[in-house]
Design goal:
- There is one protein chain.
- This protein is of the alpha/beta class.
- It has two domains: about 170 residues, Rossmann fold (3-Layer(aba) Sandwich), CATH 3.40.50; about 270 residues, tm_1862 like domain (pyruvate-formate lyase- activating enzyme).
- Helix 11 crosses helix 12 and helix 12 runs parallel beside helix 13.
- The chain binds iron/sulfur cluster.
- The site of iron/sulfur cluster (SF4) has 11 residues, from helix 10.
Length: about 450
């Protein structure tokens, strides 16, 4: 039996850091410097968190025949006695990961995650092996071919190019369920934005891939490709039932880049949840264009309680420059209102500091966020990520050399109209203006109190 340690390291920050978001590059939710923003940082940091699904799938694959420990601590005693370390990469912990790697000179280290694929030259050392693209596929193929033994793995570290033989595409149904059981005994696995109850919120993957036109600045297509691949409905339903039984939770978070992109698949999934009376609550991220009357009704009946939708900006010039495919303002308002009226809470997602943004366009977007009838809103900062097509236009304008600061909440390049301070002030203003008004505070409180006493939660309590 081989002993693996998954060493998932993060820099010390006073806000949430999560590696699964932004297509595996990760995000760091730093809402700003005002008192209100700092309170929001503390709330989100303590109540919403999860590691990368990919690495939890790897953990399950390896655990079939071997010993696996997950830790966030470089001094964990299991490291000195393990055979191999697995280090998940990201942009938001990049320098910390490199420092950690330098402390593991006596260990053989697999580096996983799309960011290491993109920045291979930074992560590839004498003692490391960069597992490219979807690293769960690589470990799945190794296991399937009976190659997880010391002799074979040690040889991979000597002949690093030979790992290319283990990337045969895999059906998503072939993967075991991610290793949330052991993880949730040690770390919080919650998402309290869609219900205040402290139940574990299981991250689920229904599909991978996104074909939309915003790929030129987005990292999801880098990680998962532009072709949509779906798990079978049966496989997803079985996973839901498994976690209901194992962990006694009915709370699920779909991590698909665009849930309901495949309408037929979504309808089939909802109908099955309803038919089998699964009594779940779940949240998704999707495009407003995918939500019509029929879909809203069906999703609500299946248990959808919170939906994240990208609005990005209220300004058409800004959106056109971003090649963002969007729906008209009237339609945005109507769809969000229908969701909220049906009991599905909406979180609108805006990006500030887009290439064509000015102070005025950002203030317009903040006002527009207040006009839209959503319960929540999020304001992140346009980030030209290494590896995306847009990066070539910005690589000479990058003003922040520390990649850990590319957390989607900082301005990292010289913007033609806005300074770093402008962006920080506008970000804090956006959160303050959106949330800090009497009506919104009452709405949020009412929703939280109601969600705490949801019948379905009590049934599974
Ligand atoms: S819709 Fe656009 S922003 Fe969202 S995952 Fe797809 S490419 Fe990325």
């Amino acid at each position: 039996m081989i002993k693996f340690v998954i060493l998932d390291v993060y820099p010390a920050k006073k806000h949430r850091l999560i590696k699964d978001t932004a297509g595996g590059y990760g995000t760091g939710n730093d809402f700003g410097n005002t008192l209100f923003s700092k309170l929001l940082n503390v709330y989100v940091e303590g109540n919403i968190g999860m590691p990368s699904i990919e690495v939890m799938i790897i953990s399950s694959i390896l655990k079939k025949n071997h010993e696996v420990h997950y830790t966030r601590n470089l001094n964990d005693e299991n490291i000195s006695t393990c055979d191999y370390v697995i280090l998940p990469s990201s942009i938001i912990a990049h320098e910390t990961e490199l420092h950690t790697l330098s402390k593991l000179e006596n260990k053989k280290v697999f580096i996983t995650g799309i960011f290491a694929t993109i920045m291979k030259e930074k992560y590839l050392k004498k003692n490391s092996l960069v597992v490219k693209n979807e690293s769960d596929t690589f470990f799945y193929n190794l296991n399937k071919n009976d190659k997880i033994n010391k002799e074979f793995l040690d040889n991979l570290f000597l002949n690093k190019d030979s790992i290319d033989d283990f990337y045969t595409p895999v059906s998503l149904d072939d993967f075991p369920y991610p290793d949330w059981g052991d993880y949730s005994k040690k770390y919080p696995l919650r998402n309290n934005f869609f219900s205040l109850n402290q139940k574990i919120a299981i991250p689920l993957l229904g599909t991978r891939g996104c074909p939309y036109s915003c790929f030129f600045y987005c990292t999801y297509p880098l990680q998962q490709g532009r072709k949509v691949r779906a798990r079978s409905v049966e496989n997803i339903i079985n996973e839901i039932k498994y976690w209901q039984k194992e962990l006694g939770t009915n709370k699920f978070v779909f991590r698909d880049p665009v849930f309901s992109i495949n309408r037929k698949h979504t309808i089939e999934f909802c109908n099955e949840v309803i038919k089998q009376k699964l009594n779940i609550t779940f949240m998704v991220e999707t495009h407003l264009n995918n939500l019509d009357d029929e879909m809203i009704k069906l999703l609500k009946a299946a248990g959808l309680r919170l939906v994240y939708v990208g609005v990005e900006s209220s300004n058409h010039v800004v959106l056109k420059d971003m090649k963002r495919f969007t729906v008209e303002h009237d339609k945005q308002y109507k769809v969000i209102k229908k969701c909220e009226d049906a009991g599905i809470k909406v979180k609108t997602m805006f990006i500030i500091g887009n290439p064509e943004d000015t102070k005025e366009t950002i203030i317009q977007s903040i006002e527009y966020s207040k006009y839209l009838p959503s319960l929540y809103s999020q304001f992140s900062v346009f980030t030209p990520y290494p590896g995306t097509p847009v990066y070539n236009d910005y690589k000479d304008l990058i003003s922040d050399k520390k990649l850990e600061n590319f957390n989607q909440y900082n301005l990292v390049f010289k913007h033609k109209n806005l300074s770093k301070k402008n962006i920080n002030d506008l970000k804090s203003l956006a959160y303050f203006k959106f949330y800090f008004n009497f009506k919104k505070v009452i709405e949020v409180l009412k929703y939280f109190i109601k969600s705490k006493y949801e019948k379905a939660d009590q049934r599974l309590g």
